[in-house]
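Work Package 3 (structural annotation) set out to generate three-dimensional models for the target panel prioritized at the project kickoff. During this period the team completed the workflow that converts sequence records into discrete structure tokens, so that structures can be stored uniformly alongside our sequence database. As a representative example, we reproduce one entry of 666 residues exactly as it appears in the project archive.
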Amino acid sequence: MFQNPLLFLHKPLPVIVKTHPENNKIMKQKILIITTFSLLTNILLSQQINDSTYVNKNWSFGQCNKISSNLPVNWKRPNPKPGYQEEIHQCLPTENDTTSEQAEQTIYQNCIEDCGNLKAGINVQIGNNFEGNHMKDNPQDNEIAVSNNGIVVNADNATIAYFKENGDTVVKFGLKWEDFYDNITIASGKVFDPRVTYDSYQDRFILINIFRTQDYTDSRILVSFSDSLISDSITWNHYYIHCDTVFNSSDEELFWFDYPNLAINKNEAFVTCNVFNRDNINDISIYQSTVLFQLNKEDGYQNNTNIQRKNWKNVLNSDSDPARTLVPLSDGLQLNSYNNKLYLVSNNSNTSSRLFWYELTGDINDNSAQINSHFVLSPSYYSTASYASQMGGNAGDRIRLIDCRIQHGYYQNGNLYFVFHRSDNGWMEIVFDRITISNSSIIENTWGGDGTNNNYIFPSIANYGTDSTNENSMISFQRTGPNNYIQIGIVNYDNGWSPQTTIVKEGIGILDVKDYLGTYKTYERLGDYTDIQRKYNSHSCWLTGSYPYDSTGTMLNHFNIPSGVNTWIAEIGDVGVGIRENKKQSNYVIYPNPTNGTQIYIKGKEINSNIQVTLTDISGKIIINRTFNKSSNIVLDIPKHLSGMYFINLISKKENYETYKIIINN
């Protein structure tokens, strides 16, 4: 790396002190201020900072081509249209024009963020919410996307399902990946790490997965483009990118993809992946590089034989190191102005104070396009704790945290927004970062961590602003600690945090599915990420997360499975905006509602099993938790001091988990 021709004085970080709304923990918002000085300036420098711009120009073209039907891999559409002839697709390179060039320039300017008059985030409200996919095994790696007409796609490491906004299923729960792809080769290997997004520009979904055989000799990125969403059914055009078509040297036969990410702009889709080399002799995988695939969306939507593809084989950060777990960013509102470019972010995953951002400067047909890599310094050092505890668990039931890599973010109006978790004196907290592109300045804030007696883990972020200038964000996460089972939570950030955490779903028992031996001892694995996505034609977001389901095995979910890891889906908004009453056909009647009395009556059409009834407030705190014997009429006594909005949750062996919003005016 060239030496920077300018020297920079790293001034002490000004600190704005806030009180944590949950536990009076002192929250610190730190602003990075860097001032530029010439070499001729006679000043004693406390620290020299080099911000280098590394220019990535190493790319090649590829296409998704139709191949002859005598090959062993046959791609089929799950629901072929009448008269549609099934086609076979494979991604093959057709041109290789790779060059490598490094350049470096100074990009730090006077980077000053004015953080006066901080606004508080909104009070988060929960709308429609219901049970999603189910895996008896783990990890889940939940993903969600919602269309403008209200189709919710929910994917995990084993299954995919489609729902209506009220929780009714469009297709059966838990459609396995081998059934989704309807392919014998895919069924013989492992499909994992799904990512899904809704494309509001075209009213379509895009889905990606990783496929890998057990012996690591076959690794692919599976890319699926949905047809027009003219009804509740969804049909897909399936393609794949074979790792061997990108890395085809003789010594790369065991290269495989992992940690995919997905984003779009108006005309293109972008897929990033880490690439590993498998050493089967020593039973380890060694990280090699990071790739970015630039795809023409329209080719996929039209089910064209050839899908244009540009490969960026080895994206490097500004330290000239591989950009590990590169996260491409869609526009937070999917505006038309986000076109012919892409922004991305990454960090060092484990321990560092450096954050990296990238700009892809042209579309797939721009041969002069390049990826410019930059870095900023995080106001705080980041690292990850080794595990997170859960209530009732022993040493073998601690949650494995993997690392603190960035998993989610979005672009909006010249700023990059992203979140990740890091250790705060051994407790995990959420880090919210905003990088301003024009001057590479950063503003950072944290939620949770030390003093909360909880671990806030695997956060995701979605835009909740009303227009491009509104920076409101919804941040979902998992929460666990010694005093609670694993929960799904939500918090809002709008130049300040919302007053409190809102718990969307309480865990029901201990996560105790299986133990990971060897390097990770006996840790349980919840997953690597959760997800929250905006519904673009309304002011609401939809989230999905994991929760343990009754490890005692006494309660059945809607798969009639007594225990394991379940998915919960929820619509998120604020008071009076984007939230509707649940319109699903109910199994129970709750009355009176609203009420100013001390009793609520619950009448079921047919209650033939014991039923668990909980009453929670908007933060998820349990006020009442009772189990009633078989009865068609239940009387729930309400404490006299309650007033406001509450939720009654009903669980039985034979009925789905149902939630009802009630208003108490005592």
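The chain has four helices and 44 strands.
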